[in-house]
């Protein structure tokens, strides 16, 4: 009986070693490397919480646009603001919120595309339980950059998640 | 000895069943669900090989841009062409090529950002061994849409991979 257990244990160890070797990259390992660089933390009063920015195209006269990768930690968000030329958000990771003034906040998540009309007052950011990463494409920047307004208060933010 | 083998085999099967259950989503399973919709196959002489397109923003006066998700099967590519307002490519999957007229072709891959100046004659597409997916952002489309030129011949394409 001892020999049976000894051999069985040997097979068990070999089998587990074998299947460990075959394991594909875990979800955690893949999350560790974002699709586009996270960039650096934004130090600005136009945001609440920790937000990272990696610019791809800085506002210039060649492309007449501003394109960057924005990453919000859970609960982090923009102030209310508007874009004279409008903006498109392409959500590449996580979950969050988009709200236009006077409208109900919309849940947004990986794979969503948000079209923000020119001069529409709005905010966007992460949900309380998940971070959010989106590419932000600001268009016709010759009409002007973002016009920043008041912060989204904790009361406003907490109410949408009720 | 027979009993030893019987028990060992039993342990082996149990161990393999156990580790199968623990396996995270495989690379193949994840590839099956792209970040953004693949859209539909383009039927146009401006492309070689099979190319899929999902538009996010069709050229309109509101955003003055055209934004879409483009997926190339291996070896598939655009014709030579140019954009009066310029274009930005954000590579989200796979490997491929970008070449401007008179310059050496550049390898591009997941995570790369390509800035195509206004009126620069160029082409982009997949490598021979991998597909390519990129978001294409055409800017200042009020200056006009893409101007399509001659195909990238097999001779041109095969030469860059030498």
Give an overview of the whole structure:
Chain A is of the alpha+beta class and 162 residues long. Chain A is 21% helix and 37% strand. Chain A is built from three helices and twelve strands, in the order ααββββββββββββα. In chain A, the strands form three sheets. In chain A, strands 1, 3, 4, 7, 8, 9, 10 and 11 form an eight-stranded antiparallel β-sheet that branches. In chain A, strands 2-5 form a two-stranded antiparallel sheet. A two-stranded antiparallel ribbon of chain A has the order 6-12. In chain A, strand 3 and strand 4 form a beta hairpin. Chain A is globular and about 80 Å long. In chain A, 37% of the residues are buried. Mean pLDDT of chain A is 88; it is low at 18-25. At the A-B interface, helix 1, strand 7 and strand 11 of A face helix 1, strand 7 and strand 11 of B.
Quick recap:
The first copy, chain A, is α+β, with helices and mostly antiparallel strands and 162 residues long.
